[in-house]
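Exercise 7. Given the encoded structure of a 472-residue chain, write a plausible sequence.
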C-alpha cells in the first residue's frame, strides 16, 4: 500500500514540477578560445542541494545534474527527476531562469512534452543545435514559467521556452529573470553588472568568471541569496563550485573523473568545510564568551580543515550579538578574530561599530580611523564612522551598471520620497541627515527593494527585512 502511495505521489511530482526556482543569473563568457558559463542559483537560504552523476551507458552520454531538496526526506531520493540544471561530458550545459508566465505555442503536429527535458538532452545531445533539433519534436507545455538556457563547448547558446526560442547574438551573453523575446530588455542589476564585466573583459580566465559571479550574487540579509555559484569550463567539462556566497573556498569537480566513480550522488554542502556558526553559537549559549573563544582557538588549531575559517561566519555571529545587545561579548570575539586576520578591515569596522554602540567613543574612533587610513572609501567605516551633525553618507561600490539607485526609510516616508543616489567616480552616493537613534532603511535598485548587503545590522525576516543604522 505504501509503495502505491509513493508511486502515485511521484507521478504527480514529475507531472506538476519541472523545476522550482526563484531567481538566478546565467552568463556565457566566450573570448574565442575559452568558453565559460557562470551560474548563480538564488533561492531561500534554507534550500539544500544535491549533485548526481551518471556515467555513459548504452547510447547515453555521461552527465551530471544538480537538484534542490525542497521536498521531504522521503522524496529526496527521487529529486533527480526534477533537475535544476546539468552538464554532460561533451560540454553541453543547461540551466533555468524563472520568469512570469508566458503563452505557450502549440503545434497540433507535435507531441506535448509533459516531463522535464534536461536529462534527455544531456543523454542524447552534444551541441545546442542537436538539443534544438530534439526539442523541435515537442510542444514544451511545461516551459511557461522559465527560460531554459542551453550552451555548448563551441560557444553556441540558445534560450528556450514554450513560447519562443532566442538564439545566439553576441559571443558573451547574460540571462536573468525576465522574458527576452523579440529583443526585450529590462533593467536588472544582476544582468546589468554581468553584462558590464563581460563587455569590459577581452580574455576570460577563472578569476574573471568568479569576479562576475560575486558581483552579480544576491546576498544576505536579503530574503533570496545565491546559495551556490558555478564557474563551468565547457571545453573541459570542469565545474568550479562555490557555496553560500563564499568565494574564498572552491570545490573543483572534473566531470570525467567523477564519472569514473560510477553512478553516485553527493549533497552540495558536503563539498565544503562546515560553517563554524552553529558550533560557536551552541558553546556561547551553554558556557559563555570565554569558553566560546577558547573553543574557536582550539578548533582552528585542531580541525582547521573540518570548519570554514576563511569566510565571515564567525564575524557575522559577533554582529548578531551586537543586534541582540551582547555588545561586550561581540567585542571580545571580534578582538579574537582580529588576532588571526589582522588585515581584514571589516573586523576593524565592526569593532568600531560595537564600541560606539557600547559608548566607547575613543576606542570606536581609533578603529574607524585605522580603516579609513587604509581604505578612504570603505563603505562601513564611512557609513558608521563619519556621522558629523547626524549626517550619514551612503557610498556604494555595488550595482555598477544599474540605471537608478535610491535609499528609502522612515526618513523618506518610504516609497513616497526616496532619495536618489548619484553615480560619482564609480560609487553610488548620497548624504542624508537622520534623527539620532535607530533608523531603518532599504535601497531601491532598478525598482527592486534590497536590504544593505554590506551592513549586517537589520530587523525583520523574509521579504520584510530592513537594514538598521544607529545615528549617534
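Solution.
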Amino acid at each position: 500500500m505504501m509503495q502505491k502511495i509513493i508511486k502515485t505521489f511521484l507521478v504527480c511530482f514529475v507531472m506538476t514540477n519541472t523545476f522550482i526556482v526563484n531567481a538566478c543569473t546565467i552568463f556565457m563568457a566566450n573570448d574565442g578560445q575559452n568558453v565559460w558559463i557562470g551560474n548563480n542559483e538564488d533561492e531561500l537560504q534554507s534550500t539544500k542541494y544535491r549533485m548526481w552523476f551518471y556515467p555513459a551507458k548504452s547510447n547515453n552520454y555521461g552527465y551530471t545534474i544538480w537538484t534542490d531538496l525542497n521536498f521531504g526526506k522521503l522524496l529526496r531520493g527521487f529529486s533527480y527527476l526534477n533537475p535544476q540544471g546539468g552538464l554532460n561530458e561533451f560540454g553541453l550545459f543547461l540551466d533555468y531562469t524563472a520568469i512570469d508566465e508566458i503563452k505557450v505555442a502549440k503545434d497540433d503536429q507535435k507531441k506535448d512534452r509533459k516531463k522535464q527535458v534536461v536529462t534527455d538532452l544531456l543523454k542524447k545531445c552534444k551541441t545546442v543545435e542537436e538539443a534544438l533539433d530534439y526539442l523541435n519534436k515537442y510542444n514544451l507545455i511545461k516551459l511557461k514559467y522559465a527560460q531554459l538556457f542551453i550552451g555548448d563547448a563551441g560557444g553556441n547558446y540558445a534560450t528556450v521556452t514554450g513560447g519562443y526560442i532566442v538564439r545566439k547574438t553576441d559571443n558573451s551573453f547574460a540571462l536573468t529573470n525576465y522574458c527576452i523575446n523579440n529583443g526585450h530588455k529590462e533593467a536588472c542589476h544582476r544582468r546589468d553588472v554581468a553584462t558590464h564585466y563581460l563587455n569590459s573583459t577581452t580574455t576570460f580566465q577563472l578569476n574573471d568568471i568568479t569576479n562576475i559571479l560575486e558581483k552579480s550574487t544576491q546576498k544576505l540579509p536579503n530574503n533570496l541569496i545565491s546559495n551556490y555559484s558555478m564557474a563551468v569550463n565547457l571545453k573541459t567539462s570542469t565545474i568550479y563550485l562555490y557555496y553560500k556566497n563564499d568565494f574564498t573556498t572552491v570545490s573543483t569537480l572534473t566531470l570525467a573523473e567523477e564519472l569514473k566513480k560510477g553512478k553516485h550522488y553527493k549533497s552540495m554542502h558536503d563539498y565544503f568545510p562546515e560553517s563554524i556558526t552553529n558550533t560557536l553559537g551552541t558553546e556561547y549559549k551553554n558556557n559563555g564568551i570565554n569558553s566560546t573563544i577558547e573553543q574557536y582557538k582550539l578548533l582552528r588549531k585542531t580541525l582547521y580543515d573540518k570548519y570554514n575559517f576563511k569566510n565571515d561566519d564567525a564575524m557575522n555571529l559577533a554582529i548578531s550579538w551586537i543586534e541582540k545587545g551582547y555588545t561586550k561579548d561581540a567585542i571580545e570575539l571580534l578582538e579574537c578574530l582580529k588576532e588571526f586576520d589582522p588585515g581584514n578591515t571589516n573586523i576593524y569596522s565592526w569593532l568600531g561599530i560595537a564600541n560606539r554602540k557600547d559608548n566607547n567613543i575613543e576606542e570606536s574612533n581609533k578603529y574607524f580611523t585605522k580603516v579609513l587610513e587604509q581604505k578612504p572609501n570603505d563603505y562601513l567605516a564611512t557609513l558608521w564612522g563619519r556621522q558629523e551633525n547626524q549626517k550619514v553618507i551612503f557610498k556604494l561600490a555595488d550595482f555598477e551598471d544599474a540605471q537608478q539607485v535610491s535609499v528609502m526609510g522612515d526618513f523618506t516616508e518610504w516609497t513616497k520620497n526616496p532619495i536618489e543616489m548619484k553615480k560619482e567616480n564609480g560609487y553610488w552616493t548620497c548624504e542624508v541627515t537622520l534623527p539620532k537613534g535607530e533608523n531603518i532603511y532599504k535601497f531601491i535598485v532598478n525598482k527592486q527593494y534590497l536590504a544593505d548587503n554590506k551592513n549586517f545590522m537589520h530587523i525583520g525576516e523574509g521579504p520584510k527585512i530592513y537594514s538598521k543604522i544607529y545615528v549617534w
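Remark. The chain has three domains: 2-271, 273-370, 387-472. Students should compare their own answers with the one above.
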